[in-house]
Amino acid sequence: MIAVVLALNALLVVVLGATGAWLLVGRLRVPDLSVGAAMGVGAYAVVASVLAGAGPWGGVVVGALAGAVVSAGSTVLGVRLGRVAVALATLAVTVGVVAAARGASSLGGVAGFHAVPLLTGSDAGDLVVLALATVAAVVAAAMGSGSVVAAGTSVALHHPDLATSLGRRPFRDAILTGALAGALLGLAGALGATAGGSVSPQAYGLELAATLAIAALVGDALVARIPRAPRGLAGVVGALVVWGPSIAFPGAPVLREPPLLVVGSVALVIGALRFVERRPATRVGVMPPDAAPPAPAVTPTALVVKDVGLPAGALSFTAAPGTIVAVVGPNGSGK
Prior knowledge:
About 65% of the residues lie in helices and about 5% in strands. The protein has eleven helices and two strands, in the order H-H-H-H-H-H-H-H-H-H-H-E-E. The chain has helices at about 1-25, 35-50, 55-80, 85-105, 125-145, 150-160, 160-165, 170-195, 205-225, 235-250, 260-280, and strands at about 300-305, 310-315. Strands 1-2 form a two-stranded antiparallel ribbon. The longest helix is centred in the middle third of the chain and has 27 residues, at about 170-195. It starts with a helix and ends in a 20-residue tail after the last strand.
């Protein structure tokens, strides 16, 4: 029975983390490689709280806040620098967090800290806490992903000028959405530390970040194929696919750790299939734009609006294939 409780605890922790990662990587399409670091700062907040004599509960709150700061910063970088730059910047954040944890001898250093107490004093009690936190996280992710703020963040990440022209505040939207995702990641790290009883710096490096990102993308791809399925379940589905086998069969040689290579290959296959499905089909008998015949010549005619002729006289223009032609002018000019 205790083995089942421990397995469920481990599964809920990764579901919580994958849900936070989905908001960034799946919903906003941010190539954030600091999602593992956001979980790491949450876990080490619990360690610091325990060593300070404040107990694990205070560390859980601080851990969620610390994770919110990390992910809010990465989302703002995405708005300011672009997707390629944010991938490199968040990679540096992950390396920096792991290096800082390895060098902090007071927090366990390279060996880690292996005396984190349970939140409630029992594994079953912590399972209840984790279950409630996971349900709340899924609901928060679903509501947050469908909010105007999340939509504004998505537009700001890919089309910042358009977001500004729509009256949005890109940095404010990015901070709010990133903070929500990071809070879930930090909470997952903190609860994972208490449920597992130990924290190790190498557990929160690039491998965890990549696995969380893959779980988010795989979950998003699978949920999108289910009619009327809430998008907020993407983290749940992704965690089950990526971590489910290793948690259910911990003794299997290949599945003992998160099978990053295997699920990475699966993710590439899914991505290739989605690309093939979205590729526009070639229609027989339709010439490409470059081979289209020239538009017939049109005799210019005078433009008259309300019995008043256009000051410039006759109006003429050619709309060539593959181009965009705009007619501008004040209201009432007859555009």
